[in-house]
Amino acid sequence: MRRPRIAPWSAFWLLLAVLYFLIPMYATAEFSLQTGNGQYGFDAYREILNDPSFKSSFLLSLRLAVETVLVSLIIMVPTVYWVHLKLPRLRRVMDFIAILPFMVPPITLAIGLLRELHPLVTVRQLTWLLSSPQQLILPYVIIVMPFTYRSLDAGMRAIDLRILTEAAQSVGASWLTILFRVILPNLRSALLSAAFLTITVVMGEFTIASLNQFQTFSVYIQYIGAAKANPAAALSIISFTLTWGLMLSILIIGRQRGSQQQAQIGTTR
Amino acid sequence: MPGLKLQGLHKQFGEVVALRTLDLAVESGEFVSLLGPSGCGKTTALRIVAGFEHADEGRILVGDKDITDVPANRRDMGMVFQSYSLFPNMTAQQNVEFGLRIRKQRSAERARRASELLDLVGLASATGRYPHQLSGGQQQRVALARALAIEPSVLLLDEPLSALDAKVRVQLREEIRRIQTQLGITALYVTHDQEEALSVSDRVVVLSHGQIEQVGTPAEIYGEPQTVFVAAFIGTMNRIEATVRADPSGAVESAGHRLPVHAARNWTSGLHVLMLLRPEVIDLRPLQGDTSAGGEAMTGNVKSHTFLGPVTRVQVSTPIGDLMVDVPSVEALSVSIGARVSLTWDPASPRLIELPAGAENVVGPAAIIAEDELQPA
Asked: Which CATH architecture fits A52-259?
């Protein structure tokens, strides 16, 4: 007799996990399609998609997410690289600093930031930053640091940073060349995962945006959820689809560009 | 091709002295090895030359140019590393071209040079392969081609073979030597493997505790060790503590026995010395019964055998201590453990080193070097 591929108990737990995630999604989708009196239709979706706030808030969050990714990578990549290469003893300190944002509740961070930035509002050179949603990037870079740091740290541990750096130096490469031509191409998966996590966190961040009175996507979702029942469910499904689509496309683009080289990164010593 | 000069290099890591005022001149086109146990400072010296470390004191000259303060990426030194150092995101050809790309060479020129070099290292067919598709030996060949592509003034090799299989190691070291000779490039090679150093170098520098013990051709290092350390570190050496005798034909005395040594003629009698005798120069003959050999010979009992392929190393317990003797393996069959044997040698073979006062512990069982003697303090 052939053994079944998946043992019955494994199948049971697997099914349980799948149901745990699928039932709420199914329920949400079902609810979003109700138009009352047992009828089904896309009214709720139409209402959301026709709402100008939907588009503006989504694009705002997306822009903030992309900008946060860029700013945090520009700060973190050289920092983590340098710590790995020259200051390995500081790694423990970095590990600690990197989890600090987890320990400080977002509400504390938001209020602290408001207090710190308030006196600066009168400085004219900073108006562009402080009077616009752009200022959210400041706290966002901090709250995504644990994710960015972890991804980069793992990626840099996996390659022999020092040997690669010295090999590049010995044939004449400058620091910038080393970083862009040798280190970054070998950190592709680490960079991708850092970007992923950052986008997810920023797209979903509510506390800080809400306290600062900016209508980001999650603030809009919250507003809809409080005000309208069926459109809220429709919005959940839409945002879910959009976020997943976004992730998937990043993944596919990342895979394609690095397809010839991706495979060996893990096996390189 | 310029030569390389290290002048008074001194380097300390905290309390540990890695290099103690090291002076060394590598002639143009010469292949010099830095040989020593781990922690002797050889890698530190090479890394200082490459520019990855900075000496606390001393200068480095390439030709007449002082490069002590030149950053690593402007030193024009090709380097081959111990572990695999190829850029994983580039093909073999791209790896070799990397240095030329930085020098802004045109792509046709780069490709020509890369294929020329990959051809030189015997990998003409591997140009499009990624490092993970190459074996360890092939990766080191590409690394060598990459180092040579920039036409470096000096080629630095940091134990490039230590991660490879024994067979590939021998093959590749000969090839490195062939390529170095062919290009006439000045090379500095770091290794802890004496066979490697002796087989490929023009000169060998033996280092211990950050200091040069001896500099010489492989034959000099092997045949005429100048210090107790070199005698112990290079090859297998019988070391016998003795006193020079006043004897016109030359002899020393150890444990009441007269041992013929021509070299002793030039030494003051009564001097405390270490007699060095290679296992391969001792002649071993089986004795019948419990007789003594008489004459110049040393008598002893066979203690153990170690089969080494063409020869078998026989340990003989004698009144002057245990001696190692290399016997052709075909003859070793007749020498059983416990058998009585006589040992003789050409009196011209042994060498003498003056023992500094209080250096009692240098004489152990031949060839067995105490760990702490080879490790950094």
From this structure: Orthogonal Bundle (1.10)
